[in-house]
Amino acid sequence: MNGRIRGGAASIFLLTVVVFSASVFAGYALGEQAASSLDALEKANRYSFSTGGVGIVIGYGQGNGGGVTASVIGDQFVHELARRGIASKYFFYDADWQGMTVEYHIGYSALGPWGVDEAAKNIGNAVNRAQAAARVSR
């Protein structure tokens, strides 16, 4: 699994979201660091169950250059989901591999893990699943 960020979809995705959301979320905590992968998973699930939103788990590994932090990536995913009408929060943990992984948690369901580009391509699937879960829970 190659989670490195390389041009293409991730660059366009990040640029679009940054322009859209620069001031919308100012001062609001969009995510938090977790102690471990299990802690991130538990927090993402708890968030999803308590809010009906999407919990995002980010495994932040080595070699993510250019100032790309887990918070930069996590904020962009949260902004994009909000643009599509879905509440979300990310939980990241330090990983011992190269690159990053992203997964979406909706109730008992999970999508991923993928590299950042693939997670960006699958954001529509997360939106559809979150909307379906909301319809079922009403």
Description of the structure:
This protein is of the alpha/beta class and 138 residues long. It has one domain: 3-Layer(aba) Sandwich (Glutaredoxin). The protein is built from five helices and five strands. Strands 1-3-2-4-5 form a five-stranded mixed β-sheet. Helix 1 crosses helix 3. The protein is globular. The N terminus is likely disordered.
Strand content: 25-35%
Distance between the termini: 37 Å
Domain count, please report it.
1
User: CATH class, please?
Assistant: Alpha Beta
Total beta-strand segments: 5
The spatial strand order of the largest sheet comes to 1-3-2-4-5
Largest sheet: 5 strands, mixed
Characteristics:
138 residues, alpha/beta, Glutaredoxin, five-stranded mixed beta sheet, 5 strands, 26% strand, globular, disordered N terminus
Write the layout of secondary structure elements.
Elements (H helix, E strand, L loop, with lengths): L7 H14 L9 E3 L3 H15 L2 E9 L7 H14 L4 E11 L1 E7 L2 E6 L1 H6 L1 H15 L1
Parallel strand pairs: 1-3, 2-3
Antiparallel strand pairs: 2-4, 4-5
Summarize the structure.
The protein has a single domain (28-137), classed as Glutaredoxin. It has helices at 8-21, 37-51, 70-83, 116-121, 123-137, and strands at residues 31-33, 54-62, 88-98, 100-106, 109-114.
